[in-house]
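Supplementary notes for students who missed Thursday's class. We covered one full example, reproduced here. Read the sequence, then the structure, then the short commentary at the end.
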Amino acid sequence: MSNKATEEELRRQGEQAGQAIDRRMRRIGTRIVVFSGKGGVGKTTVAVNLACALVRRGSRVGLLDADVTGPNVPQMIGIDEPPQSDGKNILPHERSGVKIVSLASMLPPGAPVIWRGPMRSKALEQLLGETEWGDLDVLIVDLPPGTGDEVLTIVQRTAPQLAIVVTTPQEVALLDARRAINFARKLEIPTIGIVENMSGLTCPHCGGRIELFGSEGGKREAARQGIVFLGAIPIDPATREGGDTGRPVVLVDPASAVSEAFEGIASAIKMGPRGRSEEGEER
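Structure (token representation):
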């Protein structure tokens, strides 16, 4: 096969993949991507608990774990078996009303993903094009940290209406958050919001507030950047424990301060039209 024929075949395959993704995205009302400029700020914790909070508010929610080399969503929501297939489509897992797809559940436990950027992007396109989400009100995509190939692929393919940038209050984290904000602007995502995670700790002995990482850095940055401040999530050992055991804190302890913070963020998200079937009828 000539190079020209090979290029033509690759172009045709790319167009077909794009059309398949577009068909599935049309059945999803609101697409949300969760960014972090750096790792370790609790991006996946925010994505998982926000998904559960939206379900509690009556939304039909999907959660895509797009962090190919460090996928943690299955651990945090209690999935330890491979996904099912109907022969053509990947059928998402479902936990507590959330539909979930992650590469982690398709690999042996602990297996490293040693892929270059183009291969990782191709895997994400395949997940987007072959997953049978059905009609959803919201799809949340947990992106890898930074602004690499996979992030660009997801944003271009899903056309999200909202980017949530997760940061902690201290300046070193905000430096990376600014890069994520500017990246989202370059890609013309209509709405950008900040969630400040690890925002203070209540002392279990005296009840006083301890600002381990400073205070209100995310709120100040949102005002400085002219974007939405969605809310602050306090530090709570129950959140960490829930992530380790696959039991999100929003479901285990809905009356906690952390859960109330996630409920507040969920209520602040402006929802688009409800997901529709391919025939155009609302379901």
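Commentary. DSSP finds ten helices and twelve strands in the chain. The two ends are 46 Å apart (CA to CA). If anything here is unclear, bring it to office hours.
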